[in-house]
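Protocol check, entry for the methods section draft. Step 1: assemble the input record (protein sequence plus ligand SMILES). Step 2: submit for complex structure prediction. Step 3: store the structure tokens unaltered in the notebook. Ligand used here: pyridoxal-5'-phosphate. Step 1 record:
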Amino acid sequence: MNNRIAERMSRLGTETAFSVSLEARELACKGKKIYPFHLGDMNIRTPKKIIEATKKAMEDGHTGYCPCAGIPELRGALAKEIGKSRGLKLTKDNVSIQTGGKPVIMKFILAFMNPADEVLYPNPGYPIYESQIRFHGGIAKPYGFKMSGKGFSLDMEQIERLITPGTRILIFNNYHNPMGTEANHNEMAKLAKLCVRHDLLVLSDEAYFDITYSGKAKSVASYPGMFNRTVILYTFSKKFAMTGWRLGAAIGPEWMIEQINRLNVNDESCSNHFVQWGALAALKSTKKETKKILDTLRKRRDLACRLLNEIKGVRVFKPNSTFYIFPDVTDAMRNLGFDDVEEFRKFILETTGVSFCTRRHFGTPLDGEDREYIRLAYSGIDLKDIKEGLTKMKQAIENPEMAEEWRKNRK
Ligand SMILES: Cc1ncc(COP(=O)(O)O)c(C=O)c1O
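Step 3, stored output:
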């Protein structure tokens, strides 16, 4: 038999964070206590009201197919919610329900990118952008971020420099994974003007729009000239602690959403029917519960940032959004004699059980990057384990003999 695999499969990437999960699981099987900071999954329960509404939907017989764009009730409620939070005028025809936020990335690329189109995407960034651009024959052009005294910000000059006549699409992830970066009003306005001037279509990944701890979140889709060229990636996963339910939406102008709906018919037919009734309850009546989720995350963020900043050679800015922290560990690595951040990660994992990703899980470092970073997610670990894990990490980082010993034992 000829094991023929399509040529395009060689261009498909992955989420390497899952391989860190696997390593951590193997160590756990050997009896090691693991402190899971590696995945953006949540150990917070989905609010009861959502579970009850979903159960009721199943008992009421909502177990068959539903329209490919989603049930009109949920599309209408989401149009209202997103319209209000982003200052947009939307109807249900602007909403296409999806099986999570992630499918919006592939469907957007499939519907609006031709082979050889140039697509700008963030690096560090969610790895699926590059994977999907390359898989479908586009030219992936990464843009980076600048570090300042206040944290990370978009490198606007670089974005502008990267645009050529072949550039068709910009992927923008405000409230950014992995850095927790948040663009301010001036940056968003400038970015919007660039998109309009160069006639770019935009995928605005707003997976963390609602995980903002202070101030009012903004969408690039609300800026002049933007709505008609932008698809918003929305997900129920984070705000409502529903990562495993797999429900999200593509939200945008009708001409774009119609194309996404055509892909729905050809792919999943429709998203899980009864889950959509649970999501409707989530939108209608969980204000108190979602505030509680955010309060829980805020406490974790504050504790983790404080403890990380107490470690010699580690420096971190407290992000105002997402549930990720992106500390600079360059000096800690140097003090311990590590050149390779992957080695540093393995040393910490194997000696302390603290499991995290590094900057390299979010793209190949760009020219000029001279600092090393790691990413810790605090969505799946409670306060007690954050304290215990980061205390062990401090002991390991501040003890060069431990690193020496670990290196010797590996040989
Ligand atoms: C930036 C970003 N976009 C999209 C997603 C996908 O979200 P979902 O789990 O709803 O598919 C994630 C998930 O972690 C993410 O971090």
